[in-house]
Amino acid sequence: MHRIFTTTVASVYPHYVAKVERKGRTKAELDQVIEWLTGYDEATLQRHLDDGSTFEEFFAQADLNPNAALITGVVCHVRVEEVEDPLMQRIRYLDKLVDELAKGKAMEKVLRG
């Protein structure tokens, strides 16, 4: 089992926020991206953060967006569409969306809309 699976989302979330805010985006936009991917509204996301859900627990309860398979590209030198482990692929999807948001990509494109 990869270490990231048992890492809490709450321990990584502030890094996501800092990354997007450094690039002029907002926490609200980050939350919108997470909602699009997972189906979690603001209250559900906050509950996962407060409860210390691991990435494994976080994605086990998520209703993954059917368009998530449209997320392609490279994160950490790995093509997200080629990641074989389903949980790792979902984590990489999230990483890719955060990267795209931070790079200033239009929200419609980030959300594959």
Task: Describe what is shown at a glance.
This protein has helices at residues 9-22, 27-38, 42-51, 55-60, 86-102, 107-110, and strands at residues 74-75, 78-79. With 113 residues, the protein is mainly alpha-helical.
Question: How are the elements arranged and paired?
Answer:
Layout: H1 9-22, H2 27-38, H3 42-51, H4 55-60, E1 74-75, E2 78-79, H5 86-102, H6 107-110
Antiparallel strand pairs: 1-2
Helix pairs in contact: 1-5, 2-5
Q: If you had to describe this structure to a student in words, what would you say it looks like?
A:
This protein has helices at residues 9-22, 27-38, 42-51, 55-60, 86-102, 107-110; strands spanning 74-75, 78-79. With 113 residues, it is mainly alpha-helical. It has a two-stranded antiparallel ribbon. A hairpin with a 2-residue loop joins strand 1 and strand 2 (78-79). The longest helix is centred in the C-terminal third of the chain and has 17 residues, at 86-102.
What are the defining features of this structure?
single chain, 113 residues, mainly alpha, two-stranded antiparallel sheet, 6 helices, 2 strands, 4% strand, globular
Distance between the terminal alpha carbons, to the nearest Å?
Answer: 34 Å
Structural class: mainly alpha
Helix content class: 55-70%
Strand content: under 5%
- C-alpha geometry: globular
Low-confidence stretches: none
- Along the chain, the helix and strand elements come as HHHHEEHH
Cross-sheet strand order for the largest sheet: 1-2
Describe the sheet with the most strands. Answer: 2 strands, antiparallel
- The tally of beta strands, per DSSP, is 2
- The number of helices is 6
